[in-house]
Amino acid sequence: MLRLNIMRQRLSAIQRPFVAGMRLRGYSKMSGKMSNIKTLRMENTASIDIIKQAVEEAGVGNLEKAREILSKKIQQRGGKIAEKTKDRIAKQGWISQCVSADRRKAIMVEVNCESDFVSQTASFQEFSRTIASSLLPHIPSTEATIFLNDSNYNTIFQNKTLALPTDSAASDSSVGTLNDYLLKATSLTGEKVTINRILGFNALQPNSRIGIYAHGATATASTQLGRIASMALVRQASDKYSEIAGLVAKEIVAQAPESTDELLSLPSISQSPKTIQELLNGGSILNWIRWERGTS
């Protein structure tokens, strides 16, 4: 009996470190997976199921490979959802604007989704800003006004590689085509996401600058986001033409004029009692546009 107890004690002593090692290795693998899942969840809004699949397929400790797999899965899911939702109506979303630092090039893009719930999310708003910021450098500079709609914008942008701007708050710093961005947004929102129309302005004449204004969301130094938006191309001799162009764009959003003559005769809301004509102080409005979301 004594000998049997001694043998049991010796066997237990051998097993303990072995079992502990197994548990430690198992815990280490689980910890690595959870860490990668947590990192990927912080980087984007993909579903937890897709993230887990990507981490599993990549293997423990291979975060970069997990990112690559996840990106492919998001695109694949986006393609499937896009096919299912192609006949749905997408009228929610934002009009996104971006203007160059010198105020000589600007773009306005209507980005649509299906529901107001999705349009109100921070990720969709950032996506909408990113679209305008990424497309701005690719607007041709040969014409003062360039209009594109959902049937022909790919003639310019289809094969362009669009990098996220350096001031973007988006955590995904990948590059891709416009279609890649749309498929990703479709995958992450589960809704039809589309671009309805694009307008580009170029200030080709001397002493001309572009002003932008949108009502509905927080603005940044170079971008605006709203449900109503305008761009104004203004020429003026003073060094305040950029400021005045911005004021004119704001007046256009607020007052919804139907013609340039009407616009010039309107009393300024921001600079009362001056009219818009007086606000220009000898300058002129070369072109302007006003959009309301979902009205094209």
Distance between the termini: 93 Å
CATH homologous superfamily descriptor of the largest domain: Elongation factor Ts, dimerisation domain
Radius of gyration from the alpha-carbon trace, in angstroms = 27 Å
Structural class: alpha+beta
Unreliable spans are: 14-27, 165-173
> What kind of sheet is the major sheet?
7 strands, antiparallel
Total individual domains = 2
How many strands appear in the DSSP assignment? Answer: 9
Domain Translation elongation factor EFTs/EF1B dimerisation: 106-261
Pfam family, one: EF_TS
Function: Associates with the EF-Tu.GDP complex and induces the exchange of GDP to GTP. It remains bound to the aminoacyl-tRNA.EF-Tu.GTP complex up to the GTP hydrolysis stage on the ribosome.
Subcellular location: Mitochondrion
Question: Mind explaining what this structure looks like?
Answer:
- This protein has 296 residues and is an alpha+beta fold.
- The protein has two domains: 68 residues; 201 residues, Elongation factor Ts, dimerisation domain (Tetrahydropterin Synthase, Chain A).
- 46% of the residues lie in helices and 22% in strands.
- The strands form two sheets. Strands 1, 2, 3, 6, 7, 8 and 9 form a seven-stranded antiparallel β-sheet that branches.
- The longest helix has 42 residues.
- The chain is elongated and about 70 Å long.
- About 8% of the residues have low confidence.
- This is Elongation factor Ts, mitochondrial.
- Belongs to the EF-Ts family.
